[in-house]
Amino acid sequence: MYFTVSIPGLEKMVIKKTETVGRGSFHIHVEREQKSHRCPICNERTNRVRI
Predict the structure, then answer these.
(1) In 10 A of CB 30, how many CB atoms?
(2) How far apart are CA 48 and CA 26, in angstroms?
């Protein structure tokens, strides 16, 4: 049986993998969409922050 469930807090997440573990346990592997941040060193917008 396939069905869709809305889980609060995961609306903007990308589901990468789901798996059933043991009896009654379900693991969901998620990623967030990458967005730009400010570099703490040069203060410019970037998608990758190096420290």
Answers:
(1) 13
(2) 32
Note whether 16 and 29 are within 8 A (CB): yes
- Global pTM value: 0.52
- Name the residue with tokens 């410019």: 44
Q: What distance in Å separates the CA atoms of residue 23 and residue 10, rounded to the nearest whole number?
A: 23
Q: Which residues of the chain have pLDDT under 50?
A: none
CA 28 to chain centre: 10
For residue 50, the model assigns a pLDDT of 63
**Residue 30: strand, helix, or coil:** strand
